[in-house]
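Quick start: read one record
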Amino acid sequence: MADWSTIQRRLRRRPRRWLVTGAAGFIGSHLVETLLRLNQRVIGLDNLATGHAENVEDVRSKITAEQRRQFRFLEADIRDAAACRRACRGADVVLHQAALGSVPRSLKDPLATNNVNVDGFLQVLWAARAAGVRRMVYASSSSVYGDHPTQPKREDVLGCALSPYAVSKRVNELYAGVFGPAYGMELMGLRYFNVFGPRQDPKGAYAAVIPRWILALLRGRSTEIYGDGKTSRDFCYVANVVQANLLAATTQEKRALGRIYNVAVHKRTTLKRLHKMLRDRLPDRLVQPPVYSPFREGDIRHSHADIGLACRWLGYQPSHTLEQGLDQTVCWFAERHG
């Protein structure tokens, strides 16, 4: 089984053509950047509803002129069948990241969540099949574990979903499970656990906790903790997610195909502990104590991943701990928002 460094060498020797949906988003832009640095040919698809054009420009600013020529960006919606067909044309691999995220957003507007995450996913699948793309890696979510109390979370043990967002991601997995054997496609799902890192949007009602808190701390504002602070998450730096995607996209291990994998670091951190870790990384800032609010509807109390399956079948080994990821993330936000 090839490790991450071996995969990078192989890709440089034999470039492929990739489609990344959600390319202007947080995770998608990191995938695009890594692929271009590996001298791959990349098509990025994004409607800029939640992604940002500045993420694409940031990627372009960090690569060579030759690498920029290997990148084409299409501003289009994954629910647009013609756009999906155009984007998939000639692709060897699809990395599907486009989605309407956030549990609270899905509870407020389940129709929009279903339209983007289910209908859009099916459009991408169908277009990939029509274009003859065999390999597709898609983003799922730890939210699919729902109310099952088992810790750490294992891929084969699910509870009842607690939000429309969780339902939409589970439906993606079910569709992929049908498309694989029915159409001869190699489909693998990655259940992300609380991904964070540079370029993550810190603003808006549905911003994730780490960028939202960093921005508040940088500006001397109070932070909000939902619940008692003992809620815990398996926070995963974005470089680990990039690694998992490319390992799944390139694996030659037949037994690895058609599976779903947890992507995390196998470490649980409470929100109270996370707040202290961020505060300690900003010692020169006047940090106000957090404000505690009621638990949010649809939130899972604890989330801790068993990553054994990804390690065993994909060769996944997290390159960044939570501490290392926070160092880089706080530094990035301080440079841009400090």
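The radius of gyration is 19 Å.
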